Amino acid sequence: MSEILLNVHVVMFSLREEALHVLLTPAEGRTWGLPHAQVQATESLEDAAARAFAGQIDKRQAHLEQLYTYGDPERDPRWRLVSVVYFALVPTNAQQASGKMRWFRVDKLPPLAYDHASITAYALRRLRYKLEYSAVGFQLLPSEFTLSELQHMYEIILGEKLDKRNFRRRILGSGIIEETPHQRGGEGRPARLYRYRPDAVAEVKVRRLFP
Amino acid sequence: MSEILLNVHVVMFSLREEALHVLLTPAEGRTWGLPHAQVQATESLEDAAARAFAGQIDKRQAHLEQLYTYGDPERDPRWRLVSVVYFALVPTNAQQASGKMRWFRVDKLPPLAYDHASITAYALRRLRYKLEYSAVGFQLLPSEFTLSELQHMYEIILGEKLDKRNFRRRILGSGIIEETPHQRGGEGRPARLYRYRPDAVAEVKVRRLFP
DNA sequence: AGAATAGTGTCTCTCAGACATTATTTG
DNA sequence: CAAATAATGTCTGAGAGACACTATTCT
Questions:
Q1: Residues 6 or more apart from A63 whose CB is under 8 A from it?
Q2: CATH number for region B4-125
Q3: Pairing relation of β-strands B102-105 and B177-184?
Q4: What is the CATH number of domain B141-196?
Q5: Binning pLDDT at 50, 70 and 90, where does residue A201 land?
Q6: At what angle do helices A116-133 and A147-158 cross, to 10 degrees?
Q7: Could A1 and B3 be called an inter-chain contact, meaning their C-beta atoms sit closer than 8 Å?
């Protein structure tokens, strides 16, 4: 299809300074946009997505997942552009190189180019939704974390306070995390560190809606 | 991207003769494949998807939803083919033209070309999953239906028997359907007809898994 | 009247949600 | 010993799941 341009775009999320952030790159004029790459004939879509943020984030630390493909003929005034959009989560402590890209709080985004604002909004909606019924959230945390950190992560993304005792009862009862022998010290009583168990059934059964 | 071919494929489901069926079209050799179309520079992806089954099914009767984009360089030995795959549901009584395409029971599929078997399997998994937490199932039924027909649809797709009283209690309690003044006669006591209420909150809250 | 299908109510048990105090460490 | 954070248990109410009989129509 000589007249159709095929790109990938990436909506990358990370927790920084107690808030959810998105990685953006400078775009036309004073606007910002999602990191992107043109798909090469010999690479997979996922490899293209990894190229979009190469030099900024180590791809081995990123959890990548396909989000949606945008292909409306009106979305870019210059070309017929079809974009496969990926959704990425990186842990708080992920290594980061310097460059033109910057992290922005999702509640304080700069003006975004083209349809990137609606794509970002959709990705955020999906992140919140997936957080509730899958175990993706752990991709935003370092490999060992305290229960308070885990609860905090949920609270930031879902935007609501959770009850500490109920939270612990449910998260431990689900078997999705396990204790490590380590503790994290600091001010106050040290907290036990836990780790995520990828082998645990992440396909937990959700209560059905209708039948 | 002159070397990349952009297609759409459609996995279309319908209930026929008490079983879930998929629409297939003859492919290379003795195999069958998913209906497809090449994306034109001026049409939307969804329009291209509708073209894929034009002449067979009236597109106004089909519920179309984007499923996933497949773009592995190895998936077609002849070209670098990227396919945006749509998922379609049509009601049992949808008009159907004649042509080369045929309906096959999902549990008795013929040999499928390329990666179409895994795409179909994924679409089926998604259909079962979505059926449990959204209202898509109604797209497989005519606009008015009895509670027995509705329950039957769920049983066929989920592959398990459901309790009649619990089913009615929950489905009516959810407010997702409403009575019509009509009845359907036949053998035995006539049944009241219901209709789907698209305005009812289909975004019903699912019980959270973790937090 | 018999066959076929539609329609209806109760009990139990699990689990979500609300809620406050004690334990351990550091400065 | 004061400040800070971690860790822990109980009660109540809602709803999922199991279960069997009556009602209406047709032939």
A1: A88, A89, A90, A136, A139
A2: 3.90.79.10
A3: unpaired
A4: 1.10.10.10
A5: low
A6: 140
A7: no
Q: Which residue has the tokens 């992290």?
A: A103
**CA-nearest residue of chain A to B168?**
A211
* Distance, CA of A180 to chain centre: 25
Question: Which part of chain A has CATH 1.10.10.10?
Answer: 141-196
**Tens digit of each residue's pLDDT (9 = 90 or more) over A6-16:** 999 999 999 99
**Burial of B198 per CB tally in 10 Å (0-12, 13-18, 19+):** exposed
Q: What distance in Å separates residue A98's CA from the closest CA in chain B?
A: 30
Contact B209/A206, CB-based, under 8 Å? yes
The residue with tokens 């204790």 is: A179
Please give, rounded to a whole number of angstroms, the shortest distance from the CA of B169 to a CA of chain A. Answer: 9
CATH 3.90.79.10 domain span(s) along chain A: 4-132
CA distance B202 to chain A (A): 9
The residue type of A115 is D
Q: Is the pTM for the entire model greater than 0.90?
A: yes
Q: What are phi and psi of A153, to 5 degrees?
A: -60, -45
b (16+ CB within 10 A) / e for B30-45? eebbbbbbebbeebeb
Q: Which of B80, B174, B206 is facing A41, going by the closest CB pair?
A: B80
Q: Does the structure show a pLDDT above 60 at A203?
A: no
Interface of B with A (CB under 8 A): 1-6, 38-39, 41-45, 66, 68-69, 71-73, 80, 82, 84, 131-135, 137, 151, 154, 158, 162, 167, 170-171, 174, 176, 204, 206-211
pLDDT of residue B1: 42
* Choices 3.30.300.30, 3.40.630.40, 1.10.8.60, 3.90.79.10: CATH for A4-132: 3.90.79.10
Q: What are phi and psi of A173, to 5 degrees?
A: -65, -25
